[in-house]
Amino acid sequence: MILDLTPSNRAVYEGCEVVRVSQDRYNLVTPIRIAVAVIARNILEIVSQMPADDRQELVLTGAAKQDIYLTAQSVAGPFFKKVIRLNGITGERVEIPQSQPPLDFQNESED
């Protein structure tokens, strides 16, 4: 699945205020602390509509703030076997490691 995080993607930014500043450029107006919650909900909705068998690789791309990329990765990443960051200018693909606690990880209990 390719997920375009550019503010022009209405499915991702629905519920946020986005303004068109030129023919091909949009800016997010909603404060980022509010936008990440709205966008997280939207991305979960998008992913939940996909059949589980189609969730092999998530490709994140588009001109967006780092906070949006972090939100997309943390919300959608666990549903996919692989997460890729695609640089739309250079075409470089970088696999983002999925974080999981080590097998011997134990929570410390509070006494």
Largest sheet: 4 strands, mixed
Approximately how much helix is present in the residues? 25-40%
Mean pLDDT: 89
Strands in their spatial order, largest beta sheet: 1-4-5-6
Strand content bin = 15-25%
Provide the succession of SSEs: EHEEHEHEE
Number of strands: 6
Shape: globular
Instruction: Please work out how many helical segments DSSP would assign.
Output: 3
Rg computed from alpha carbons, rounded to a whole number of angstroms: 16 Å
Count of domain modules: 1
- Secondary structure category: alpha/beta
Distance between the termini: 45 Å
**Segments where pLDDT lies below 50 for 5+ residues?**
none
Provide a compact summary of the structure.
The protein has helices spanning 10-13, 32-48, 66-76, and strands at 2-4, 18-22, 25-28, 57-61, 82-86, 93-96. With 111 residues, it is α/β, with parallel strands linked by helices. The strands form two sheets. The protein has a four-stranded mixed beta sheet, covered by helices on one side.
Task: Describe it.
The chain has one domain. It has helices at residues 10-13, 32-48, 66-76; strands at residues 2-4, 18-22, 25-28, 57-61, 82-86, 93-96. The chain has 3 helices and 6 strands, in the order βαββαβαββ. It has a 4-stranded mixed sheet, with helices on one face. It has a two-stranded antiparallel ribbon with strand order 2-3. It is an alpha/beta fold and 111 residues long. Strand 4 (57-61), helix 3 (66-76) and strand 5 form a beta-alpha-beta unit. 29% of the residues lie in helices and 23% in strands. The N and C termini lie far apart (45 Å). The model has no long low-confidence stretch (mean pLDDT 89).
